[in-house]
Amino acid sequence: MQVKRNIMINKAGGHSGANTKNYRVSIPADMIRDLGITEDDRSVILTCENGIVTIRKAPEQ
Fold first, then answer.
1. pLDDT higher than threshold 90 for residue 6
2. Among 40, 49, 45, which residue's Cα sits nearest to residue 59?
3. Helix (H, G, I), strand (E, B) or coil at 57
4. Cβ-proximal residues to 25 (8 Å cutoff; 6+ apart), any chain
5. Its pTM surpasses 0.90
6. CA-CA distance, 18 to 44, in Å (whole number)?
7. For every residue of 18-35, which 3-state class applies, written as one string?
């Protein structure tokens, strides 16, 4: 499955620096289910290599 998304960019709040920003992207529910992510087990591993970001389910501990 492939989908196109925009990155959400927001100013960070709290005690962050004046120019600090947060970057987020929404992931379709079907992809989350395929990864096996649940509310109780939602750890993932993010990897960025050669301009490609990969999201994998983290191994259970």
1. yes
2. 45
3. strand
4. 5, 6, 7, 8
5. no
6. 29
7. CCCEEEECCCCHHHHHHH
Domain ranges in the chain?
8-57
Cα–Cα dist 35/22, whole Å? 24
CA gap 11, 33 in Å, rounded: 30
Neighbour tally for 41: CB within 10 Å: 10
C-alpha–C-alpha distance, residues 30 and 36, integer Å? 10
**Alpha carbon separation from 35 to 12, 13, 17, 25, 53 (Å, rounded):** 29, 31, 34, 16, 15
Share of the chain above pLDDT 70, in %: 100
